[in-house]
Every structure is written in C-alpha cells, then in structure tokens.
Design goal:
The structure holds two protein chains of two kinds. By secondary structure, chain A is α/β, with parallel strands linked by helices. Chain A has helices at residues 8-12, 40-54, 78-82, 94-107, 125-132, 135-138, 169-172, 185-197, 262-274, 291-301, 316-328, 351-354, 358-369, and strands at residues 35-37, 58-62, 87-89, 110-114, 148-153, 178-180, 202-207, 233-235, 247-250, 255-259, 278-282, 285-287, 304-311, 337-341. Chain A is built from 13 helices and 14 strands. In chain A, helix 4 runs parallel beside helix 5. Chain B contains eleven helices and seven strands. Classes of the chains: A alpha/beta, B alpha/beta. The A-B interface holds A 59, 85, 90-91, 93, 95-96, 99-109, 111, 123, 126-127, 130-131, 134-144, 175-176, 178, 198-200, 287-289, 291 and B 129, 131, 161-163, 165-166, 170, 172-174, 179-180, 182-184, 187, 190-199, 201-202, 208, 220-221, 224-225, 227-228, 231, 392-395, 398-400. The structure holds thiamine diphosphate.
C-alpha cells in the first residue's frame, strides 16, 4: 500500500476505531494510583507520560510524533502536557533522529525517539550499530548512549513490503544493543519504562498488529479488544517490567514454544488448535535473554518450537535453536522446530500465506510431538 | 528514442595535477588578507551569503595582521598557540616514526592543519564538547591533555584510557571535551547537533563543535546534521576541514568543483564562513564569530577551513601514487606554523632563537612522554587485562559475556 492511502482502517485491518479504548486514555500522572484497562497504544503513551513527568531528562521526538501525537497515537498529547521542547516533530531523517538522540544521550538526557515503521529504521542503522551500540565500549565508559528507539513493527496488517517487517535479528546480532518486544499492554508500559531507565541503548519494537487488541492469527474471526484481557489492566503509576525476564504465558507439559510479540498470541492459538499442552514463553526481551526460563522449560518438556514473523534464515530463531541445542541436548526428544516467515520480502497479496499463523504452528507442534516427523 | 543535441558523456572530475605534473593552483580564487568584510555575528544569514565564496584571511604575506577580522590577540596567546601547534607537529612526527619502528599499527598526522584544532581548542573551553575526526589531535594538545595518555592509547598498552579497544588515534576524553572518535566517517556531526540541542533544551551555556573532512561531507550524515542544526537552531559550530584530499580522491570528487563547501550551508539557511585554515588568526576570528552567534542563541554556523593535507592520509598511504610530490610545498596558503611565527617575529614578540627553543622544548616534551609511555609498553608488549575485553559492552555484564569470558579463561 502506498503511504498516501495508508489510513487508520488499513492499519487496523478490520479493527474498528472504537476498539481504541478512548474512554480509558491514560490519565495524567496526577491521577494517583490505580489500574485501568488500556490498549497497547495507551499503555505506551502512559509509559512516556509517567516517565516524562518524573524525569525532566526524558524527551520524545520523531516524525509526526509531536503535535499530532504520532501516526499510531503513541505520543498523543505528550506535547500538550509536557511542552513543545519535550515532545516534538522531527524532520524525515531516521539517521538524523537517532544521531541527534545519541548526542543528547551523551550529554546526559534520556531521549526516546520514534521511527515511524521498523521498515524505515535502516537509514539509522549505521548510527545504531556503529555509534549507539559502541559508545560505551569504545570510550571505556566515558560516553554512553542511554537512548530508546521505539518503532512499530511486524505484519498481519496488509502492510506489504515496507510496513510489515520484523528486523529484530539485525539488532540482536549487534553487541551493545538491547532488543525488546512487548506482547501486551501491561508489559508494554513496564518494558518501555525499563528501556527508558536503562543506561544502554534499547531497540523497542512495538507489534503494531497488537496495538488495538491481541491477535492470534485467526484473521477471519473478529478481533477482540484489549479490554477483555487481564494483561490490559495497566497501573496508571510508573512501574517497570525488568529486561531479561521472560513471561510464561501458559504453562504446559508437552512442548515449549518460544515466541515474542504477536507470535505469542498466535502460539497460544496454535497450541489450542493442535490440542497440545504447550508451554508458551513470551521472551519479552531478546537481549538480554532469559536463558534460565528457556532452559528450565525445555528440560521439562523435552521439545521446543520457535515461532517468529521474521524470515527464517539467520532470524533470531536460529540463535535460540542453537542455544537450546547446546544447553538442552540430552533432554530433547525431537528436533527443534522453527515456524517463521518465509525467506522472501513481505508480500502484500499473500499476507496469510506468509504470516506464520496458528495452523502452521499447530502443524509444527504435532510433528514435534511425533519426534519431528 | 529522442536524439540529444550532443552525444552524452560522463564527466569524472580530475585534479589539476597527478604524479609527475607541476602542481597547479591557478584555479584557486584567494582573497587577499583583510579583503573580506566582517558582518555582525548576529546578522541574518541571508545577508551574508557572499561569505561562503570568499576567503577570510588576516595574515598577509609579510606576516602582518590586517583587516576587520584581526582578532587582536595579545602576544602571550599567540605564543601559546604557536607552541601548541609546534607541539602537535612534534607529536605527529614522533608517532609517525613510532609506527615505522613497529611500535604501533597505525598513525595519522595532521601536518599543515594544526592551526584549526589548536585555535579552536584554545577558544572554546573543555565544557564545550568537541566532536572531532581523527585529524583534530591539536584539540587535545591545545587543551593540555597529557601526551603520555595519547601515546598509551596509540600503543594500546596497560594504561590506555580506552583499554586497548580502539585503533590508534581514536581518542576519547570527556574531561577534555573530546568526544569518542568513530571510524565511521561523518557520524559525529549530527551527534554534535544533538548534543547542542540537549544543551539548549536544558538552558545550559555549553556549545558543541564538530569537524568533518571535505570528503566526508558527501555522507548523508552531513546533510542530516545541517538540517537538524537549522531546524532546531542548535548551538553548534560545524567545521568542514577542506584539506583538498580524501585519501586519494581530490575534493572535486566530493562536489568541490561545483561550489565551495561553505556554500552548502546556504541551502539550509545557515550562516557560512570560508576561512584560510592555515592562518591561525583567521581561524581564531571566525570561530569567535561563530561562538558569539551560538552564545547569543542564534544557532549554528558552518565554517569551511581551507587548507592542505601535507602528510600522507595515514601510515598506510602513499600520496606519491596520486598527487604531485611537491604539491604541499607549492600550496599558496603556506604553512600555519611558519605563518604565525612570522607574525610574532614581525610584532617583535618572537625570534628564530625562540622558535628553535620552542621546537626543542616540544621535542623534549614528546620524548619524555614517549619514554614514560614506552616504559609501560608499546603495542603487543603491554596491554590491559584480557578480562576487560568483555567489559563496557553493557553497563552490567550480560550472561553471555560472562560465559564467553570464562571460555577465554579469564
Ligand atoms: C563511512 C566510512 N567510509 C569510508 C571510510 C574509509 N575512510 C577513512 S578516511 C577516508 C577519507 C576521508 O577524507 P576526508 O573526509 O576528506 O578527511 P581527511 O582524511 O582528508 O581529513 C575514508 C574514505 C570510513 N572510515 N568511514
């Protein structure tokens, strides 16, 4: 789809605007303690809002991220609440956005920048990889880069080649970067807050397919809003979800599924569809990685299926598979399976053939239960 | 298919001289010292566009300071500047030799460009963060950074302030306002803009100052830096050191035949100055002008410093393969050290004997630092503990790094 015709409806793929839970827009931090239902957009907005209220060194900028509040509304009203210099619009220059954030970070601020789509993070890749990731190391700690790069990511929205990508493995491969992907509003707020407070550069990918509701990959069924989910109960106060700690989304005895972002929900649906008692682990942060949770689970189940949207070859699943093989070899009863995007660019017309849906997950689970046959 | 009036042909720019040719600088339009007006530092950039095509010069051929840009420095400041340039050159000579002697893997001199970083490092205090390239060692030297620490970095020895992690000369010092040097060209310029934006955001008094070579202005980062600097009116001084060469490519390959590098500022609405980079006083005056502007919250200034890279690009380079051997000697703007020396002598504030003494003193300082650093060790003879290789990747060690460190047995 072209940028010009990219509307709210396109993005949400059938999610009606009223599913954006306007009634529960995050209250100002003065609202005091309490927990309200939020969608992921609101939870992220609340993370920025509460953190900006607490720390004058936190500021937010990006393309359309100031006055307008972002094309996905994540930075909505931050400018109004915190002022023009704390939440502002940036020129269309991903390299410039990240580079200036690095300079600000070196000065002592904690900038949070938005890259409108993860598919457009590449112009900033040199700044992220050669600079942000290495400042601390190459200066022996004299200069650091406590920046957060937020970016909507992932597919399942008919976004075609350049509004669907999942480039996490391009960042997990880089020493010095932390890579975080939330799968629900509660974690989204807590993890984003943790990223902002972290003294290292963090790449924070927001699965845009999950912005307005959990999505399990059954794309023909109506989508439910976040409201119905327990994980949409979000404290209005600031809190953090620690980096490097996975969440066991569902305990299970038969097989371990490692997933993150949208694929957490797809994995849950896939397990149900296969009738397999799968333990679904939401990794939440890919770096640092909760290796203990992974090891404990695979040693318990003896089987492991890895699910991600990104193409299979050299995807983060390859790293996970290697780690599980190295650490759980004598516990494995079947080859480790990977359910991933194909090794093609993300196609438009073939969205649901490309997207690793619950049926493909179920197949992999059944085959794994059969010893990989 | 339509026919063209002329068959199309691809133009590939070529320098005025190649090895064996007589150097030819007749194409350069050089203003005489004192010939260029000095606009008010707070003036509207649109009113001074011609500054991007002129050349601000103060020292004339006889070493006299003339014209509106004369910063009227006291002799003591001039002597300090001269000594810092002499020391920079002595340091370069020794470290270049150290490389030839196998004491380190790599070195880069700034011969002929000393006036730039030295003058600017003297004007701006260490609180004003510098975002240098690998050719601004004069900044550290002018700000009094210990030579021995520079050498320790070059030798990657046990006392290397950055623990043997970086290629020689990629210094880093927060205390001396010297941002960590990156091997990736151009990246530091938009970072300097961000640093300056942060200072403005906090209502601070500090400025940022960055440098980029003529060659690296072709990087996208340069464009991004100018855009952000202009849009947010960042308090930053953006220097372009046009030393005519980017390794083997003459400045025409970076677009220098079509216009001046300073004039690139015009399209962004930024003020531009084009300055004789071998004229200590002109560099000083232009920097002060940009500083005054930034301190008055009028934002960024682009300064093209017109100079010549006298030395090989690096110890890995042989310029005789791509440019006339005597080009540097024929450079019409001369040598920055010789010119400032001549000026001080003309003022009656310096003599050949004092110059000789200063050179001896510089050599002695470098020798003493060399002795101290070499006692710790040159490359391969001494280094930080291998354990430190795994540190500072993150603020706290990741389990993978702990495991990998153990794998190495440390
Ligand atoms: C992004 C990038 N591309 C290429 C190089 C290799 N390289 C190192 S120095 C250099 C030439 C730079 O020339 P210039 O900017 O004119 O600076 P000078 O060396 O003349 O000071 C090149 C191409 C690099 N370091 N970084």
């Amino acid at each position: 789809m072209s940028e010009q015709t990219f509307t709210e409806a396109d993005r949400n793929d059938g999610i009606e605007p009223d599913m954006v839970d306007q009634d529960h827009a995050p209250k100002s931090t003065a609202a005091g303690s309490g927990t309200v239902p939020m969608n992921m957009i609101q939870a992220l907005n609340s993370a920025l809002d509460t953190k900006m209220a607490e720390d004058p060194n936190v500021l937010s900028f990006g393309e359309d991220a100031g006055y307008f509040g972002g094309v996905f509304r994540v930075t909505d009203k931050l400018q109004e609440k915190h002022g023009l210099t704390r939440s502002f619009d940036a020129p269309i220059s991903e390299c410039g956005i990240v580079a200036t954030a690095i300079g600000m970070g070196a000065y002592g601020l904690r900038p949070v920048v938005e890259i409108q789509f993860a598919d457009y993070i590449y112009p900033a890749y040199d700044q992220i990889v050669s600079e942000a990731a290495k400042l601390r190391y190459r200066s022996a700690g004299m200069f650091t880069s406590p920046i957060t790069v937020r970016s909507p990511y992932g597919g399942g929205i008919f976004g075609g080649q350049t509004h669907s990508q999942s480039p996490e493995s391009l960042f997990t491969h880089i020493a010095g970067l932390k890579v975080v992907v939330p799968s629900n509003p509660y974690d989204a707020k807590g993890l984003l807050t943790a990223c902002i407070e972290d003294d290292d550069p963090t790449i924070f990918f927001e699965p845009k397919r999950l912005y307005n509701g959990p999505f399990d990959g059954w794309h023909e069924k109506p989508v439910s809003p976040w409201k119905a989910q327990e994980l949409a109960q979000v404290p209005t106060e600031k809190y953090t979800v620690p980096l490097g700690k996975a969440r066991i989304m569902k305990e299970g005895a038969d097989v371990t599924i490692l997933a993150w972002g949208t694929m957490v929900w797809v994995s849950l649906a896939g397990g149900e569809h296969a009738g397999v008692d799968a333990e679904v682990i939401d990794l939440r942060s890919l770096v640092p990685l909760d290796i203990e949770a992974i090891e404990a689970s695979v040693k318990k189940t003896g089987r492991c299926v890895i699910v991600h949207e990104a193409p299979k070859t050299s995807g983060y699943g390859a790293e996970l598979s290697a780690l599980v093989q190295e650490r759980c070899f004598y516990h494995l009863e079947a080859p480790i399976a990977r359910v991933c995007g194909w090794d093609t660019p993300y196609p438009h017309a073939f969205e649901w053939e490309y997207f690793p849906g619950p049926e493909r997950v179920a197949e992999a689970l059944k085959s794994t239960m059969n010893g990989g046959r | 298919m339509k026919k063209n009036t002329k068959p199309l042909s691809l133009r590939v720019p070529e320098p005025s001289g190649r090895p064996g040719d007589t150097p030819d600088f007749s194409h350069l339009k050089l203003d005489a010292a004192g010939a260029v007006a000095r606009p008010d530092a707070l003036a509207d950039p649109h009113e001074m566009r011609d500054m991007a095509f002129r050349l601000v010069r103060v020292l004339d051929d006889s070493g006299k300071a003339v014209g509106p840009w004369d910063p009227k420095l006291d002799p003591e400041t001039l002597r300090r500047g001269l000594k810092a340039m002499v020391l920079t050159r002595a340091f370069d000579d020794r470290m270049h030799r150290a490389h030839r002697q196998g004491k380190t893997s790599f070195y880069m001199k700034c011969t002929g460009e000393e006036a730039i970083a030295v003058a600017q490092g003297m004007i701006l205090p260490a609180e004003d963060m510098g975002f240098p390239t690998y050719r601004q060692q004069g900044l550290l030297i002018a700000r009094g950074y210990p030579l021995v620490d520079m050498m320790n970095q070059i030798y990657s020895n046990a006392s290397d302030p950055i623990k043997g992690r970086q290629l020689p000369i990629m210094y880093s010092s927060r205390d001396y306002g010297f941002f960590t040097i990156s091997g990736n060209l151009g990246t530091q310029v938009p970072q300097a803009v961000g640093w300056a934006m942060a200072s403005a955001y906090k209502g601070d008094d500090r400025l940022a100052i960055s440098w980029i070579g003529d060659g690296a202005t072709a990087e996208g980062d340069f464009h991004n830096a100018l855009t952000f600097a202009a849009v947010y009116r960042a308090p930053v001084i953006l220097n372009i050191v046009n030393n005519q060469w980017a390794i083997s490519s003459f400045q025409g390959i970076a677009g220098g035949l079509e216009t001046t590098f300073a004039s690139k500022a015009i399209g962004y609405g930024l003020p531009a100055l084009r300055v004789d980079g071998n004229d200590f006083l002109a560099v000083w005056a232009a920097t002060q002008w940009a500083e005054e502007r930034a301190r008055a919250n009028r934002g960024a200034t682009v300064i093209e410093l017109f100079t010549y890279r006298g030395a090989p690009h690096s110890t890995s380079d042989d310029p005789s393969r791509y440019r006339p051997g005597d080009e540097h000697e024929k450079w019409p703007l001369g040598d920055p050290i010789a010119r400032l020396k001549q000026h001080l002598i003309a003022l009656g504030e310096w003599s050949d004997e004092q110059q000789e003494a200063a050179e001896k003193d510089a050599a002695e300082q470098v020798r003493a630092a060399g002795k101290e650093s070499e006692a710790i060790g040159t490359l391969g003879q001494s280094r930080p503990s291998v354990k430190t290789m795994f540190e500072d990747v993150f603020a706290t060690e990741d389990w993978r790094l702990v495991e990998q460190r153990r794998e190495v047995g440390v």
